[in-house]
Specification:
Layout lengths: L4 E7 L1 H4 L2 H13 L3 E6 L4 H9 L5 E2 L2 E2 L3 H25 L4 E4 L10 E2 L11 E2 L7 H9 L3 E4 L2 E3 L5 E3 L2 H12 L4 E8 L17 E2 L1 H9 L8 H12 L4 E6 L14 E3 L1
Parallel strand pairs: 1-2, 1-11, 2-8, 5-8, 11-13, 12-14
Antiparallel strand pairs: 3-4, 6-7, 9-10, 13-14
Helix pairs in contact: 3-4, 6-8
Amino acid sequence: MDKQALYVIKVGGNVIDHEALLSTFLKNIAAIKGHVILVHGGGKIATRLGDKLGIASKYVDGRRITDADTIDLVTMVYGGLVNKKIVASLQANHCNAIGLCGADGNIIPATKRPVKTIDYGFVGDIQTSAINTAPLISMINGGLTPVFAPLTHDGNGQILNTNADTIASSLAIALAAIYEVRLVFCFEKKGVLRDANDDNTVINKINRSIYQQLLDEKALFDGIIPKLDNAFAAIDNGVKEVLIGHADDVLQNTTADVAGTLIY
């Protein structure tokens, strides 16, 4: 029996922060034919609300330090405000969404990141083998669209802030044995570009040999290389395809005629 298609879609903060872009994006999500899991980032809302509450944002190399005040803040903002607004908007578009974080149904247990040179605080690292897929499969097969905030838990009552890309990749890998999974990363570029400043230079398809050739030619900008490394790691662990593209193109990028970059 052929596996059913599942699209695990991650949308980043640039869309979350822009009301009109988010509205269009969610209308497109609701129009997708097939099973969908949506994973969202937090955008800058937590930073803005933190400033009002006197909770200063701290970053090291672009990564948020999640201290005790900050984990409470991001739990409220990511798991509450952002997640529930997305769910309500999807419901308005006749998509039966359900808002979740990793603690719900014990779906995504994680461990607090150990302190090495930097103490990131209450940040969670995921072991894909620990993901509890049974509740998710029941929801998906029951016609629900799970919407995940970027939060996990340690099994002892502690919520952990967790990278949304990592959550999306981990869910895609964990569900690859059950579904034919395409992992879709939506961001502000049209795809993987030969020229980072020119959206007309999208590389439409990349396999390992093409990727190695692009690396040898130094044809890729540094920021995209970690995304591609993560994409091939997902494929190595059972995910059929990974798509990197613009949030505006999400509907097209769940078809065979993609507008972004298909990694296979």
